[in-house]
Amino acid sequence: MNKGKKIALGVVGGAVVLLGGGYVASYFVAGNQVPAKAEVDGVAIGGLAPDQAVEKLRTELGPKVDAPITVAAGDRSVSITPSQAGLIADYEKTVAEAGGGFSWNPADILHSLTGGGSVDLVRLVDQPKLTAAVEADAKTFDVEGVPATVKFDAGKVVRTEAANAENLNVAKTTEAVTAAFDDGKGHVEAVVDSVEPAVTDKMVDEVVTSFADPLVSGPVTLTHNDTSMQITPAALAEAATFDEQDGKLVGKLDADKLFASTAEAQKALKLNTAKDASFALDGAGVKVVPAVVGEEIDKKSFVAAVEKAATASGAERTAKIEVATKQPEYTTEKATALGAFTNIGDFTTNYPHAAYRNTNLGRAAELVNGTVLMPGETFSLNKALGERNSANGFVDGYVINGGRLVKESGGGISQAATTLYNAGFFAGYKDIEHKPHSLYFDRYPAGRESTIYYGSLDMRFQNDTEYPAVIRGYISPSSSGKKGSLTFEIWSKPTWEKVTSTEIAKSDYYTGTTRTVKGDPKCEPQAPIRGFTASWSRQFWQGGKVAKTEKYSWKYNAGDRIVCE
User: Fold this and answer.
1) How many CA atoms lie within 13 A of 439 on its CB side?
2) What is the residue-wise DSSP string for 59-74?
3) How far apart are CA 144 and CA 220, in angstroms?
């Protein structure tokens, strides 16, 4: 190698060494401090060591960075604290981006040596945590929607307007909060979605136009043959209902309510009512009263015809209805197949002459006479007679009250209860309710008798056989010197060969006291009446012998001697 080349290489080598030393020196100079002109969001950090710069930024920018962010929509708002919602500043990274810290990158070294400049604060967002924070406050922005309504009030269409629901859009609001944090803003407009209610004003508009207004525009006329009936707008409105179906509000008529509310109007169609076959007294026997085939409106077609006509106008508000044949449940054939009825149980009681007895007992016989008692039915004497007053054909007579005989309307009617009880007793019918008198009267069989008082005491028995029955009732009026009699007979098909009563045994006699009644103008003197216990049995015969026995007993009170003063 010649001398010139050695000198050249020496120069180059020296230059490299010189430059390398300068680069290393620049690395250490730049890494020991932040560039002189560096600042972050208006906070100067130039010339500070990196850790000093970090602390200065944390001190001066920290409160601003973690200042609550207001999320608002109208008068509804919430505050989100950034550090609690995953929003934080990275001060170390910010200082590094400002030129603080060691770097072998020539560009970084050059940037530091030339003084640096302004950089943005590095902000970090934990999206899942922020989303959860926004979602936690979502209910603050919820507004419950109000569906539109429509109804009829006094036959008029009444409606209310809808109001949309409002719900926070969490995803979009989270994006808005993120952007505000990045920009250092403290206020965010919440993103709220408006949601229509299940029933909108438009839906109500449609149903009012297509159903409600036409419905009450006038009466609907239904025809059958040469008869007709009208349904008033008020009756139509009363039966109307509104339901949301597949995004529409549908008006319709409640079939049961419409049918029931127009029952009176339906009478104008003069439809025949189906009647079961029955029975009636005929001289000394019983005859079959034939069944009647009736007509009835088909409810389904009735409502369909009304709905179609009710939403129409003019002549189309009149429609024909279908009428179906209604067969009786108990047919003439079934009644006739029973054959002739016989007297299966009867009883007669006598009574002393008294005009009130002829009247009251005659009225009782009249009201009961011809009563039909179907299998399983229960006869009630109170129901058959009704209230015993003058309007119902009864007059004042004697009744037992507090152990004394006093006058009341319908007095003496207990004889009807006793007579009919015994007829049912010998017919073999089930005893449902009966109560013997508290005092014994010798015109009745001891124990086997019954009193009655409207509203509290009744005489009831049940036809517990498989055959219908007809009750016959009549009197033989009393006259001066002649007793009267009351008879009830029960006509049916026999279930038992016969029903009998054992002899009535009387025992345990006792007597009462003497009572003096003073100052009572209604007082009636009364002879003493002995009390005792009566015992007997009902016997049901089949195959020539007693197949069933029912035992009974009753204790009579002793009647006091009443002296009136």
Assistant:
1) 19
2) HHHHHHHTSPEEEEET
3) 41
CA distance 174 to 191: 9
Distance between CA 23 and CA 288 in Å, rounded?
134
In angstroms, what CA-CA distances link 204 with 103, 148, 366?
A: 73, 7, 63
Place of tokens 């530091």: 112
First to last CA, the chain: 176
Report how far residue 153's alpha carbon sits from residue 44's, in angstroms, rounded to the nearest whole number: 75
- Residue in the structure block whose two tokens are 């009225």: 363
Within its chain, how far is the Cα of 291 from the centroid?
39
Could you give the CA distance from residue 205 to residue 248 in angstroms, rounded to a whole number? 11
Q: Which of 53, 34, 32, 22 is nearest to 111 (CA)?
A: 34
Specify the DSSP element, H or E, that contains 204: helix 201-207
113 three-state secondary structure? helix
d(CA 356, CA 394): 8
- For residue 149, the SS3 value is strand
What is the pLDDT tens value at each position of the chain, 565 positions in all?
555 555 555 544 444 444 444 444 444 444 478 999 999 989 999 999 999 999 999 999 999 999 999 999 999 999 999 999 999 999 999 999 998 854 445 545 545 555 578 999 999 999 999 999 999 999 999 999 999 999 999 889 999 999 999 999 999 999 999 999 999 899 999 999 999 998 999 999 999 999 999 999 999 999 999 999 999 999 999 999 999 998 899 999 999 999 999 999 999 999 999 999 999 999 989 999 999 999 999 888 898 999 899 999 999 999 998 899 999 999 999 999 999 999 999 999 999 999 999 999 999 999 999 999 999 999 999 999 999 889 999 998 765 555 555 555 556 899 999 999 999 999 999 999 999 998 898 889 999 999 998 888 999 999 999 999 999 999 999 999 999 999 999 999 999 999 999 999 999 999 888 888 988 888 888 888 899 999 999 999 999 999 999 999 999 999 888 899 8
Helix, strand, coil fractions of the chain, as percent rounded to 5: 35, 35, 35
Contact in structure between 414 and 450 (CB atoms under 8 Å): yes
Residue with tokens 């006793």: 418
